[in-house]
Known about the structure:
The structure is a homotetramer. Helix content of chain A is about 40%, strand content about 15%. Chain A is an alpha/beta fold. Chain A has two domains: about 5-80, Cytochrome b5-like heme/steroid binding domain (Flavocytochrome B2, Chain A, domain 1, Roll), CATH 3.10.120.10; about 125-495, TIM Barrel. Chain A has an eight-stranded parallel β-sheet. Chain A is globular, with a radius of gyration of 24 Å. In chain A, about 55% of the residues are buried.
Amino acid sequence: MGKVFDAAEVAQHNTSESCWVILYGKVYDVTDFLSSHPGGAKIILKLSGKDATEEYDPIHPPGVLEENLRPEALLGTVDENTLPKVEETPAAAEEEQKEGPPPMEWLLNLDEIEEVATKQVSRKAWAYYYSAADDKQSKRFNTEVYRSILLRPRVFVDCTKCDLTTTLLGHQLGMPIYVSPAAMARLGNPAGEAGIAEACRSFGAMQLISNSASMTPEQIVADAAPDQIFGWQIYVQSDRAKSVAMLARINKLPAIKFVVLTLDAPVPGKREDDERAGQVGPPPPPRGSLKTTDELKDGTPDVSKGGGVGLQLFAGTDPSLTWHETLPWLAQHTNLPIILKGLQTHEDAYLASLHGPQVKGIILSNHGGRALDTAPPAIHTLLEIRKYCPQVFDKLEVWVDGGVRRGTDVVKALALGARAVGIGRPALWGLAAGGVEGVKRTLQILSDETKTCMRLLGVERVDQLGPQYVNARVVEQQIYDGPSGLEDLRKAFKAKL
Amino acid sequence: MGKVFDAAEVAQHNTSESCWVILYGKVYDVTDFLSSHPGGAKIILKLSGKDATEEYDPIHPPGVLEENLRPEALLGTVDENTLPKVEETPAAAEEEQKEGPPPMEWLLNLDEIEEVATKQVSRKAWAYYYSAADDKQSKRFNTEVYRSILLRPRVFVDCTKCDLTTTLLGHQLGMPIYVSPAAMARLGNPAGEAGIAEACRSFGAMQLISNSASMTPEQIVADAAPDQIFGWQIYVQSDRAKSVAMLARINKLPAIKFVVLTLDAPVPGKREDDERAGQVGPPPPPRGSLKTTDELKDGTPDVSKGGGVGLQLFAGTDPSLTWHETLPWLAQHTNLPIILKGLQTHEDAYLASLHGPQVKGIILSNHGGRALDTAPPAIHTLLEIRKYCPQVFDKLEVWVDGGVRRGTDVVKALALGARAVGIGRPALWGLAAGGVEGVKRTLQILSDETKTCMRLLGVERVDQLGPQYVNARVVEQQIYDGPSGLEDLRKAFKAKL
Amino acid sequence: MGKVFDAAEVAQHNTSESCWVILYGKVYDVTDFLSSHPGGAKIILKLSGKDATEEYDPIHPPGVLEENLRPEALLGTVDENTLPKVEETPAAAEEEQKEGPPPMEWLLNLDEIEEVATKQVSRKAWAYYYSAADDKQSKRFNTEVYRSILLRPRVFVDCTKCDLTTTLLGHQLGMPIYVSPAAMARLGNPAGEAGIAEACRSFGAMQLISNSASMTPEQIVADAAPDQIFGWQIYVQSDRAKSVAMLARINKLPAIKFVVLTLDAPVPGKREDDERAGQVGPPPPPRGSLKTTDELKDGTPDVSKGGGVGLQLFAGTDPSLTWHETLPWLAQHTNLPIILKGLQTHEDAYLASLHGPQVKGIILSNHGGRALDTAPPAIHTLLEIRKYCPQVFDKLEVWVDGGVRRGTDVVKALALGARAVGIGRPALWGLAAGGVEGVKRTLQILSDETKTCMRLLGVERVDQLGPQYVNARVVEQQIYDGPSGLEDLRKAFKAKL
Amino acid sequence: MGKVFDAAEVAQHNTSESCWVILYGKVYDVTDFLSSHPGGAKIILKLSGKDATEEYDPIHPPGVLEENLRPEALLGTVDENTLPKVEETPAAAEEEQKEGPPPMEWLLNLDEIEEVATKQVSRKAWAYYYSAADDKQSKRFNTEVYRSILLRPRVFVDCTKCDLTTTLLGHQLGMPIYVSPAAMARLGNPAGEAGIAEACRSFGAMQLISNSASMTPEQIVADAAPDQIFGWQIYVQSDRAKSVAMLARINKLPAIKFVVLTLDAPVPGKREDDERAGQVGPPPPPRGSLKTTDELKDGTPDVSKGGGVGLQLFAGTDPSLTWHETLPWLAQHTNLPIILKGLQTHEDAYLASLHGPQVKGIILSNHGGRALDTAPPAIHTLLEIRKYCPQVFDKLEVWVDGGVRRGTDVVKALALGARAVGIGRPALWGLAAGGVEGVKRTLQILSDETKTCMRLLGVERVDQLGPQYVNARVVEQQIYDGPSGLEDLRKAFKAKL
């Protein structure tokens, strides 16, 4: 490790035969690692022979390097004086002059925060956060469905007091709003997921840690308050040993109270904004012959072509999970309660309710519209459960996420049976707009709006909200109306026991 | 009071330790008053040491100063020669050159009047009048719901005559259209609420006086015609003595025939346009640490941060009103009939109908969309009452407001059971566009349109309008369709007797 | 009449005390006529002392002058040399250079024809033709309702032949499309209503002559083919003698086969575009005190203020028509069959069906959206009749108009039970775009489109069209669904016999 | 044929009396052919005396010339040196500089491909491909209907594998997506229909060959893989001998497995974009007197006026087809299975199901919205069949086309009962954007999207898709709800046997 390299020498190792990169001033030989990089070889080769720190840092939590490279891969350090000076391109200069964000206090709603964040972040970060599947119809519908539900305010009710506290899985929380497991927070702001944790702490809000967080779980929960609550999201890896190792780490972190198993994205959705951002910059991909169906038949998402951040993060995810294999496997490796995320039909909600007590809750979610376009918004699934199998609410906690932008949205979801409401992009936009203060502002706005809404409805406590406070008739006329087959599901489940 | 101050001396008293202001040429020490100003200390401090008359005048009725300051607070007068000359900024010069409004006769509909008014008034006034809660969806829906109702004109009916006269609470009126209690009229035009009263007089129209009027009730009714009818709107104050004092004043004004108790805004809605207008101008608020949920938990709207006109007007309002406490309290302090304003569910309409004979009427209203966004328009509540408890129409007069912009809107509301229809913003826009003549033009347009509509329907008198003249099927498919629980309400009411 | 006046002398008679005008080179004293001008005194006074020919000509059919002025009102002729030369203003010059319309054959649909016409005609003509009541919602809905109906094409049907011929009231016609009684054709093109008649002749199409045509009925039918069919529209005048005189003239014209009694506009609608066009030009109306409700209570539309063409045409119309007075009166003055125009509810359609055999047909119409805004489109009424009282179709011919722009619209109306479909504005736009050729092009387009549609549906003859060829479900969900009270109507009708 | 002409001499034969044209360097006398040209005489006369190769080539397959002209019509060759040099107009120069398309790999969805294609092709080609009937409402609705259907993803299903293979009419295929019979491929790219065939080969996709292909069937299938499947579309000609001759050629091509009989366009729709493109260029058509209804009564589309490509292609098509005449006639001339294309009602689907075994399948189609505007999208007909006569699915294969732009659209159609889904314009846009690679990219995108969708639904094989995977409630509320008359159809069918 004592060896000091000249940048020019490193620069010569820029092929798949000999591929070196500089990271944090150190020189690594990653030739052997090329084929096993979850994000594909291509993206490494693009940076081969160069200092890759700026690209690498915001999307890799510490420790990843050490976990994946043999010790001898570290060849030495680079002589920083030999590195090419970063030329200030006119674009970069302009970038410099970019105004900072306005005071967070001036931002009145979540749309304004997104607007400010859009101006603050890189195109790559924007594309990753903003993107959704295909034509972004589910993303749009997630928000619009709330607007088609009307509220039913009662009058002459003392609304002096309003209390947002609630309990989730038996834990006391300051509000029924939590931060969903959104990946790559450092892409938007260096405070990263730990910054979101800091903001949550101020509000007693729960945070779900993404499997693809840009910081380690240990970092994120490091400054947790004694009563602060976290969940940890798992994407089970095809290489199960990796998942087992992660679970072992999670089991040791007392702030993490449960595991969230994501089910709505077993394969990656097609997020075109994200993919387009990955296309930027010369030279364009060669106009080669295209892959045919047969070559792609194996089911592994092909990241060798590049693709967006989303596609790269997906590499390694196991698409073969099932009720009967995965839940028992998970029970072997953790005693934490399980929350199933991404249920989109009443049938699956019902099935989950048969899997207690291991499964303690479900999150109705279409992955923020990022997986399957024209998948139903969580409110549809919530209304489906109310219609076909309301007993699910007695057996499981039902949480929802997707499209929440106003306190009235929070109240509507709670009134229809949700116990908690997650926000994904809004937390990232808040972080991107103003760091920790931006996330706080996001939570404060939602908290204030939720309380104002509850007061104007004549409701003091979260547990008093019920369907009598909303008119969801327009949505009720749109939800699934076919046969449910619950009886068959029940029988099949019993038969397998 | 004989002392004459130099402006420079006054200017030195610009802190919370010693805070002087100049109003109408007089110098006041308002240091002690800072903490009890309903609109918050901040807005006074911004003007401390200066002549605050221009800011103060249009939003405070006469007498407020005297009521709230001890006599010794009046220190003397200012030497007007020492006041800084108002520099004519280019913007101000441009303002000067602003064309006056066109002749009111040229304005053909209420939208055109709003357009003209928008150009005439200050940004602050525009923001206060125009604003509505959150995304202004209820405001928009208020108008759109009328457009989705079709009329059913009958032919071969003699429509030579058309008579808009009606009776409300037993009083004869020239038209079933009244002016809702809209605050801060002088912000738009110096004629203020008394100007609205003058216009109403010409048309035999009823006016409801806002609790936050920019003139005193005595001023507003001063020139009332012998048969002119007013109602007075009360926001009950947490300091009940203030409300009792106001009621005592109202009881002495024979032109005021009833009290309107506003229930749809126990806490202020979030009117972002209004708040944004309050943000204008340097310096921006310091980027301080934000309040967390806990600090805001007491339920008092926090006006110390500034906020818009709407938020300031709200200060002091009692959010703890209930059927069982407030109505008896009100009966102790006035014998006037009570109208409950802001009902938005058939349940509350039914409850109100049990509280006769004190309660003589209800106003279905979502506060012009200014309180809770996605609250239902009055037409929804009207249809809910028709569906669940039509007997309410026999026990109470049912009035509606919100979104009325055309005579056809008036006719639709009346046909569905409303006895009268209120206009809020249109009266203010009329005043702002052309003073008294502007309000007259507003009422004339609505009157003409309403009569044209009735004639084309084949209807001569207001009391002949009924549901057979409208096709509200599209709206009927959207209103609440859940259980009503009226029986439980009835039992609970009886039990408490 | 021998006297020749100097223009300067005429110019001095420009007050209500002495009011002269020049028309077609003759000088008239119209002082006595001022108060009885159906269009109001104001519009004459504006032209007093001047040559009014250009304004007068396109909206008055020949003979009107002689009918309304005493012989001694004709004072003599004007010396044309003394008339002021028309100065060519830059605007006029530009007008001159205006390109003529493209060849009519190039225009592919009715929207393109309207577009071309819009560029060809004066603002006044455009405003009169284009305008509709209030917010033009019924006008828009008239067209949109057709777009929400789907067709149901049958395949494997021999569609070699397609025949648009039909019979209306027993008369053979070339197509089931007729020209509605649209007024003021010469405003758009000098060919006027006679030009429309010429175009109709080529297609065997029926024409209804407007009561306010800019040519006399005699002129319009002068060149009629032996088998050409006309109807004459009557607006009954308050001065019944005028209507009786007109009916006497009509009775003498064999080409006119029936009388159309318009019922959907007993008082004028509020057509703001038209009124705005009437406002153009200096000086603006004085900013006087506005009329209050009481002054307008008599029910006579007040045209003294000016107003648009539509309002002026309305003057003198009797708003007091009823089933029991007007129909017998009409029977006294003509033996022609009666068609009632402007029915908008199934109730009135049913009532009409009780008034045979005098009443032979009804036209479902909301007056092109020009009378009452948010009145239902004819298709609504057609579907109401199908739902509540289909027997009406056996007793009366049911025609419809309003919003038809495509052959598919024609087919949809016929399939749902209409025997004929009227076009109003399209005929005027055609005339304005290209005179007689423009109207022919309009009829040709509709004819071609209608035949193409029928062929693609697998339908050869008009009488084979039926509801099985359309899917009107979306509209069916929007039409009136309340009680009908037909039984009460029947009883009341019988009682009055 | 030895004679060599001077271009100047050819140029003199430019009238209907003597009409010569140059094609591929040869000189033809086409005077006698003028009256029998299916595309009308006018378009030939426009090119008479000139080199017509550039106009002729992309829309006529080889052999057409020889089939239609007598041998003596070939007069000789032209001296190429005497031909006028093509002047490079500035527009042409600009055209030259037009950038080529981006690498196909960069195009992420079908809309982007259309966008690129729009820039690559001539206005004429764009207009022909893009155009649809009238207001293009059916075209728009074809796409929108898919967006109003939601998906119902099931979770915890192993989605490692996903297999798009299927069988159609017993033939094994790589995907359930086929290329519809879209005409005039060489107008967009010289690779033409054979290029589409090449792309299909890579994906195992089926191709239907248009009756109006710009290449011969023999050329198109020339390079077919052993297991590659084609269908051939027939528009039966009024001159049946021509159709019989074509069928004889088809019968000899083993790659063609079935005949598709198009029924949804017995007469041409009105495609205004296409017609407008045909209008371009001086001189404009003379402003002659227009044809009246009577002159057009014979039912033959009149192409003498010019019109678009679509109208010209239509010439000669027999509009008199019927169930009882045409199917037996077809059986006489081919033993291939018959697919009926263009069914748009459940009635006709039911009728088709009675015509087995000759009729083996039906294609629900509104001809891409190009025939009858406001005809229902295929999804409507699919849902109608499900509702009224689901037994049809057991008797026939049901394919659909129109509006498919995403893999989710494909999955929705399959889930609702379609066995295969056709794409028309997308294949042409792909070809126009990038030739064979462009079509491959189109198929690859659809294949990838379809597989991603199936995986995210938890479905491995095409035959597992069913209605439980979609929520089509919004569409179900819009489809036909009237009587079906299936019993009458059955009886009538039996009676004719």
